[in-house]
Specification:
mainly alpha, 3-stranded antiparallel sheet, 10% strand, WH_DNA-bd_sf, MarR family transcriptional regulator
């Protein structure tokens, strides 16, 4: 964990964000994105464990399923998260044991398994969402200054656009 007294200006800048190397802006932006993801994951781990009592990888499964009201096939979950199917099977079993997901056979495909969130998981995610969002925002603000934001705009130009007024 990062030292709470550590200030963002005390942290070394991501070398890829400087823009004076060999990499094109898209790859520099990708490196900034990876650094930001690492910072978010590091801070989320303990919050996820405290609030949801699941591992970070199990949390990613819950988040993916939260956006799919009818559930997803396990092969698709493995694909989207870049996880081996055997590891996913173990994680799904842990989540099912905790009462957070259901597992059922896919109609017409005896080998297909579909997983979905339970109401318990939906309630826990809803209750923890404010804390989780604050954690993500805080982690990003500590690692992404104006230079990193500019580098990200190389990968996601819509980040440079002004948000529309409500």
């Amino acid at each position: 964990m990062a030292d709470p007294e550590e200030h963002p200006t005390d942290l070394p800048e991501c070398p890829s964000a400087q823009g004076d190397g060999l990499l094109p802006k898209e790859l520099r932006a990708w490196m900034v994105l990876l650094a930001a993801m690492g910072a978010v994951e590091q801070e989320l781990r303990s919050v996820v464990k405290d609030r949801l009592d699941v591992s970070h990888d199990e949390f990613l499964i819950l988040c993916l399923l939260a956006e799919q009201p009818d559930g997803l096939r396990m092969t698709r979950v493995a694909e989207l998260l870049g996880r081996p199917k055997t590891r996913l099977t173990y994680q799904i079993a842990c989540l099912q044991h905790a009462g957070l997901v259901t597992r059922k056979s896919v109609c017409g495909d005896r080998r297909g398994i579909e997983v979905a969130l339970t109401e318990k998981a939906r309630r826990l995610l809803e209750e923890a969402s404010g804390t989780l969002a604050t954690t993500v925002t805080g982690a990003l603000s500590r690692v992404m200054g104006p230079d990193q934001h500019a580098a990200m705009c190389g990968l996601l130009p819509e980040l440079a656009e002004e948000p529309e007024a409500p």
